[in-house]
Amino acid sequence: MKPENRKRPIVIETPDNGNLQLDPNGKLRHFLSINGLNRELLTEILDTAESFTGVSERTVKKVPLLRGKVITNLFFETSTRTRTTFELAAKRLSADVLSLNISASSTSKGESLLDTLRNLEAMHCDMFIVRHADSGAANFIATHAAPHISVINAGDGRHSHPTQAMLDMFTIRRHKQEFEGLKVAIVGDILHSRVARSQILALNTLGTEEVRVIAPKTLLPADADRLGVKVYHNLEQGISGVDVVIMLRLQRERMSGAMLPSEHEYFQLYGLTDERLEAAKPDAIVMHPGPINRGVEMATQVADGPRSVILQQVSFGIAVRMAVMSMAMGTMNPGASKK
Amino acid sequence: MKPENRKRPIVIETPDNGNLQLDPNGKLRHFLSINGLNRELLTEILDTAESFTGVSERTVKKVPLLRGKVITNLFFETSTRTRTTFELAAKRLSADVLSLNISASSTSKGESLLDTLRNLEAMHCDMFIVRHADSGAANFIATHAAPHISVINAGDGRHSHPTQAMLDMFTIRRHKQEFEGLKVAIVGDILHSRVARSQILALNTLGTEEVRVIAPKTLLPADADRLGVKVYHNLEQGISGVDVVIMLRLQRERMSGAMLPSEHEYFQLYGLTDERLEAAKPDAIVMHPGPINRGVEMATQVADGPRSVILQQVSFGIAVRMAVMSMAMGTMNPGASKK
Amino acid sequence: MKPENRKRPIVIETPDNGNLQLDPNGKLRHFLSINGLNRELLTEILDTAESFTGVSERTVKKVPLLRGKVITNLFFETSTRTRTTFELAAKRLSADVLSLNISASSTSKGESLLDTLRNLEAMHCDMFIVRHADSGAANFIATHAAPHISVINAGDGRHSHPTQAMLDMFTIRRHKQEFEGLKVAIVGDILHSRVARSQILALNTLGTEEVRVIAPKTLLPADADRLGVKVYHNLEQGISGVDVVIMLRLQRERMSGAMLPSEHEYFQLYGLTDERLEAAKPDAIVMHPGPINRGVEMATQVADGPRSVILQQVSFGIAVRMAVMSMAMGTMNPGASKK
Question: What SS3 class is residue A264?
């Protein structure tokens, strides 16, 4: 890890991910979490994604890097949007895509999940894209996968959503060039957000000057001050002078949990409006992982306004996923071909 | 529009579709409705489809026209048959196909549908195939789509089903060579049928001598006499001397709506039998958009008989959809490549 | 049929499958059942599969044998695992795959199923992979399919599951080289198992010295002694001295049918353990069609032990399906190309 990160205690994620994610040469093997990846590797992901941004705009949106490989979507939790972006990324790399709908119930026993994995490996699948409601599921699968398999975490419980974090980093770098000197505010339900955890880690690893979180106390983790962030409870104060405002999606089921007032009241306190955005820097950008709850997390004028880069995040998401997939496949194949 | 059509008032569809469907050079950009397309353009679709009929019969059923393009099925209403023909047509053009099941409920708010569209555009999808229970849905999507997107209407409410109409025209032309001098009868639930509306428009635009509709009064629109058709309530009289008999599918849910007597009674009055077909010309062909309710719209002997061209309609449907898709993609790309 | 089989009465399957499955030159046209196929043809399937085993291990897991062909999965009964292996096999042959979910209810009338078939034929599909809860469904479809269509049985009722049987034969041949001199025991619910029926036929056709079935009386067919097998009710006695032990999957719904004691009691009587396996030959292999019920059909130590070849069965299943699909497509195309 780079010196600029050592000064901040990072305790969200388990410390042994690093070894699991990297091969003996320090190259990417699985992509499970930002934790344990250093600044060079995150930068390599961003640079590789940069080389793919042109592919989506070509007449023929294909590169043959993963031709004949079988990429398997193991989505234990439904997410059409995320599954679609991985599927498009895989197809642009010329891979074959196998999508399996696996209900959590049918694999509730660890042994049964392992048998499913063993069978997919025996069918010569090359990569598992894992989405699961339980924190640690992608790590579990990577720990037990055969040596020739790469695992990509597409969101696990409250733990991690590293490809989302990296497409956010890509979007920030496109607009702000470098992370040193940047002030970035993350607004909303930090407590339950795997996106926020991965974003904080990535921003700190990449050397961001200041990472702020803005949330009511009920939506902050107890150890928020140990995350390497500044904590704010007031939106105007929190976004004052920032370069980037990242709004989190509000899970509406939190509303009934007495953790939150009504949607209307939430918008009054934490909804982003053009007026409130005045407190940020004049060239501040506004981000959101989507899908937006308009009128809850932000006003429609902000979502569709000139500072919003929300749709660019979606576009860049495909290039970033192409980068991670091709790097993870290449890792195990330092030569020209991989068996 | 050609002179032979100007004499007939056509009021079924909104008059501004023409501009939306065509680019400034008069080339096809979206395919939403027969309305607003002139005889030359409909003939160009038929001629292009003709060039594709051989592809399905080759050893390798592929042409590389849309290689690397992403065709997205946006089916808000389930239709395995129509979705399958579009998927096969797209694959024969070497495109990648993305099929999204979008429940109408999750996109009941127009804003939310627009956000879905914006996201798919950001993922660099190239074409939306739209099926929706609401009339005008495909037009709405085309109106709001980004400039690089083509929209194909795969059936919207009671409004329009233009690819079905064009595959019917293709089938008629294959058997009868030209539309001048032809008498065509459409039998069944004209009132609720988007297929019938599109067929009537296409037949009139292509210069058919006489278009007849045959239905009980409860299944005819109030303005039937303004559609440019002759109205009959008696099947034998209506098909007397015609070259083409098009049977419509009877939606069984109409039965309970007091619009119709029982299926049995419907067949007694409007079901096509070999005996009744004697009234048509000796070389008359029988068509149906499928799936057939045997013993309701027609007897099995007619459906499987020598005059039935129903399965040819299915085959030609793939060539016609290949034609419309490749023309719409080429529209926005007058040069050799499109960004 | 070979002389060594003629001595055994085989009455499980209808005797006219042979003609239906073979073209006039004796080449494979459909693959519906082991019944009616002789030793030469089964050996040709195994030899062809052998040539494909390398494909799954290549960097680019593709051969262009079925490029542009449309392989249609007609699964009237859900089976993710079997559907997935056929889909992977088809993609490795470079075919396009169309997967249709057909509820049995929507096609409960034979006529309606035939209309579905006619439509898929009109769309120029080339092959139907059929899975159905009713015995004889694949034969019915093959009987009524157009001449250019091949039908592969992916499991029909209690009747037949011939690709599973052939991947089992492939696995046995890989480990034991030839079938003469082999003793093979099949353990479990013989009565309801289409897998067992196909295995017994294939083993006998290939000249296996002795085929044994081991089951409680309630799970044996009344005519078990006419199957060309030796019947045992005791596991230790049945596997004594065998070269191959094939465990069948226990359908848990049989438990409530008073056909079986509890799962625990079943395991006590018929569950395979390391201790019991001592009765077999020292180099005996253990097979299972998957998915395993661990602790019911066998102990985990056996399933994951050195004699288990269960995951090899899965891998070989793709090569065997590639072999059957390419042979059936080639049958109708004795020259270089097929219309």
Answer: helix
Instruction: Name the CA dihedral angle for A116, A119, A125, A128, rounded to a multiple of 10 degrees.
Output: 10
Interatomic CA distance for residues A193 and A201, integer angstroms? 13
- The predicted-structure confidence for B141-181, as pLDDT tens digits, reads as follows 999 999 999 999 999 998 999 999 999 999 999 999 999 99
Half-sphere exposure of A266 (CA within 13 A, CB side): 31
- Write down the H helix ranges in B24-72: 39-52
Residues in C closer than 8 angstroms to B88, CB to CB, are: 70, 96, 98, 123-124
For A57-109, give the DSSP string: GSSS----TTTT-EEEEEESS--HHHHHHHHHHHHHTT-EEEEEE--GGGG-S
Encoding tokens for residue B165?
């109409």
pLDDT in tens, C17-55: 458 999 988 999 999 999 999 999 999 999 999 999 988
Predicted pLDDT of residue A204 = 97
- In A, which residues are within 8 Å of C291 by CB distance? 112, 115-116, 119
CA distance A25 to A28: 9
ω before C9 within 30° of 0 (cis)?
no
Chain C residues in contact with B292 (beta carbon < 8 A): 115
Q: How many Å apart are CA C18 and CA C24, to the nearest integer?
A: 11
Q: Does A141 touch chain B (CB under 8 A)?
A: no
**Tens of pLDDT, residues C270-301:** 999 999 999 999 999 999 999 899 999 999 99
| Beta strands per DSSP E along A142-272 | 150-156, 183-187, 210-214, 230-232, 244-247
pLDDT digits (tens, 9 = 90+) for B295-331: 999 999 999 999 999 999 999 999 999 999 999 998 4
Measured distance between the N- and C-terminal CA atoms of chain C, rounded to whole angstroms: 32
Sign of the C-alpha dihedral computed for residues A21, A333, A127 and A110 taken in this order:
negative
8-state DSSP, A287: E
Edge-to-edge strand order for the sheet containing B150-156?
Answer: B96-101, B70-75, B127-132, B150-156
Closest CA to C84 of A101, A93, B291: A101
Distance set, CA C329 to CA C90, C112, C159, C334 (Å): 12, 26, 24, 10
Cα-based angle C161, A75, C70 (whole degrees, multiple of 5): 45
| C233-262 per-position pLDDT tens digit | 999 999 999 999 999 998 776 666 666 778
Domains and CATH numbers, chain A: 3-160+316-331 (3.40.50.1370), 162-314 (3.40.50.1370)
DSSP code of residue B290: S
Strand partners of residue B213? B186, B231
ipTM: 0.87
Closest by CA position to A87, among listed C68, C72, B123 = B123
Which single residue is written with the structure tokens 């579905």? Answer: C116
Q: Tell me whether residues C59 and A122 touch, CB distance under 8 A.
A: no
Chain B contacts of A58, Cβ < 8 Å?
68, 339
Q: Most A CBs within 10 Å: which of B115, B121, B338, as the mutation test of the A interface?
A: B115
B64-104 pLDDT per residue, tens: 999 999 999 999 888 888 999 999 999 999 999 998 877 64
- Is the CB of A68 less than 8 angstroms away from the CB of C85? no
pTM to 2 decimal places: 0.89
3-class SS at B127?
strand
Query: Do C68 and B57 lie within an 8 Å CB cutoff?
Result: no
**Structure-token pair, residue B314:** 């299915």
Q: What angle do CA A320, A321, A327 make, to 5 degrees?
A: 90
The Cα–Cα gap between C168 and C316 comes to 8
Angle between helices C310-331 and C162-176 (to 10 degrees): 120
